[in-house]
């Protein structure tokens, strides 16, 4: 983290140099770029736009490489037990699948560094942009709201992964009093997350934003998810926060019902991973990818050495669904239909003759435009965004939270039913559910609808429950056996270990999380 603090200001300034418009006369009068500092940089609105762009860009760390045949995002999939690997050539990824990861595991280290770099960049924006004069007030407020959302989102991920984490809300330098900060109790971290999101709510953001920037629907959904998490483990705030979660999610649902062309579920699962549907309708917030800057990073879901793209026999197969999880979908579920959320056949080299893959693979992030489809060659440019918040999750948050307030209501039932209707499934009548059976029905839909979007692990931690593919019920977290490795989850797995090098750099982070070697 100290390394990140030293580098972050340079990154913001480089973004400005690359993105900010500069006239010839201005160029001749400019200081050398190497002489730019945060003190003399944040002077015009274009600098504010460049700075917030750098925060968005840094969120893409989750797609960066983590050794051979692996990406950072696989941290949040390998631990769930819903996926396995066909290659087994990355020892760090194997350790995650085997639940023997530690403070040296590269994915763990990269996530910590990536999240705190986002936080550091957002802190620069929040500290420096208010002083830019002259600047349109609405533009300034909007940028600050976006920065608070992005900081909250990063801290929300960090606190769920490590528990107590350093709470840093101001830019740091080597002379800062808290340059080597201690860890802050989770309650205080969550308070800051809520404060940031409430401020973002009031920042004048539009309900939707087709450019991919933060919007009001995303803010409200994330806030509802934060409240839902606070209601569960480890904070266990219960009914008060279930109500906060339900009320906030209902605001989005109410807007969607009144504006069905702006927010709603896609009619087809194909639309979940099409370039033409990015940043609209169901996609409330996405990580933006374009091959001119960075291409879509989900290639490790391609089957190992099978010709499903223009590259011919290729792919790594380092994240593939376990047969048991795929088999857990209800008969007739369109998500499990070939080329729904999974695929067992495709076209040779992307657009040739059909062939059988020999197993079911993840199709949720497959880009036909880039890779090709029947009779149509691919563009070879994988510009597909990666979903972070979908309206499907908003509906499921509401259904779960509202049910926890006593019993399933008609509105909660309708939210669940929308998910199942799209899947082509029959939903039992409202009166057939108890609070307990409706609770598990919603959880089950979360596993089946939101799989492979780096969300399932967080459900396991906040619920202390894990979906059992064999029984179709839910086990306690501790003792549940991940069928991907036949290894049981332990108490220590509720948190990740802190990186060993980071603890050497900053002794104030000690002690290590329980169960992991120092």
UniProtKB/TrEMBL annotation:
Residues 27-228 form the SusD-like N-terminal domain. Residues 339-516 form the RagB/SusD domain. It is found in: Cell outer membrane. Its main location: membrane. Keywords: Cell outer membrane, Membrane, Signal. It comes from the Bacteria. The keyword Membrane applies. Pfam families: SusD-like_3, SusD_RagB. Belongs to the SusD family. This is RagB/SusD family nutrient uptake outer membrane protein. The lineage of its organism: Bacteria, Pseudomonadati, Bacteroidota, Cytophagia, Cytophagales.
């Amino acid at each position: 983290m100290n390394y990140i603090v030293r580098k972050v200001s340079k990154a913001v300034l480089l973004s400005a140099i690359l993105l900010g418009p500069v006239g010839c006369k201005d160029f001749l009068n400019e200081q050398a770029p190497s002489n730019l500092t945060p003190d003399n940089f944040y002077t015009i609105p274009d600098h504010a736009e460049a700075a917030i762009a750098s925060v968005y860009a840094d969120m893409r760390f989750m797609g960066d490489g983590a050794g051979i045949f692996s990406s950072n995002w696989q941290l949040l999939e390998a631990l769930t037990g819903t996926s396995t690997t066909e290659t087994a050539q990355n020892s760090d990824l194997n350790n995650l699948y085997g639940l023997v990861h530690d403070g040296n595991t590269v994915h763990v280290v990269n996530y910590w560094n990536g999240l705190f770099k986002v936080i550091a960049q957002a802190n620069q924006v929040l500290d420096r942009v208010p002083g830019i004069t002259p600047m349109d007030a609405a533009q300034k407020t909007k940028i600050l709201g976006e920065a608070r959302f992005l900081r909250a989102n990063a801290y929300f991920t960090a606190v769920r992964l490590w528990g107590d984490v350093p709470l840093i809300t101001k830019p740091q330098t080597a002379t800062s009093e808290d340059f080597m900060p201690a860890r802050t109790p989770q309650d205080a971290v969550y308070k800051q997350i809520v404060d940031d999101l409430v401020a973002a709510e009031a920042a004048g953001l539009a309900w939707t934003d087709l450019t991919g920037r933060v919007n009001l629907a995303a803010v409200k959904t994330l806030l509802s998810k934060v409240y839902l998490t606070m209601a569960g483990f480890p904070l266990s705030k219960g009914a008060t926060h279930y109500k906060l979660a339900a009320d906030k999610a209902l605001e989005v649902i109410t807007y969607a019902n009144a504006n069905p062309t702006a927010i709603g579920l896609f009619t087809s699962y194909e639309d979940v991973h099409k370039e033409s549907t990015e940043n609209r309708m169901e996609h409330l917030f996405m990580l933006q990818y374009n091959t001119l800057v960075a291409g879509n990073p989900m290639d490790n879901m391609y089957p190992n050495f099978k010709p499903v793209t223009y590259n011919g026999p290729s792919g790594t197969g380092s994240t593939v669904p376990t047969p048991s999880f795929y088999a857990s979908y209800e008969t007739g579920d369109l998500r499990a239909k070939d080329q729904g959320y999974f695929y067992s056949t495709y076209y040779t080299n992307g657009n040739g003759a059909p062939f059988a893959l020999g197993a079911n693979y993840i199709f949720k992030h497959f880009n036909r435009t880039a890779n090709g489809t029947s009779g149509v060659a691919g563009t070879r440019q994988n510009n597909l965004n990666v979903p972070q918040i979908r309206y499907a999750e908003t509906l499921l948050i509401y259904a779960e939270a509202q049910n926890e307030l006593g019993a399933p209501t008609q509105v909660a039932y309708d939210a669940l039913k929308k998910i199942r209707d799209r899947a082509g499934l029959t939903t039992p009548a409202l009166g057939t559910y108890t609070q307990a059976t409706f609770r598990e029905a919603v959880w089950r839909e979360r596993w089946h609808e939101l799989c492979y979007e780096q969300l399932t692990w967080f459900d396991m931690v906040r619920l202390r429950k894990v979906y059992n593919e064999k029984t179709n019920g839910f086990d306690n977290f501790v003792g549940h056996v991940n069928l991907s490795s036949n290894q049981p989850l332990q108490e220590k797995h509720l948190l990740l270990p802190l990186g060993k090098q980071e603890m050497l750099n900053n002794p104030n982070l000690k002690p290590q999380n329980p169960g992991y070697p120092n």
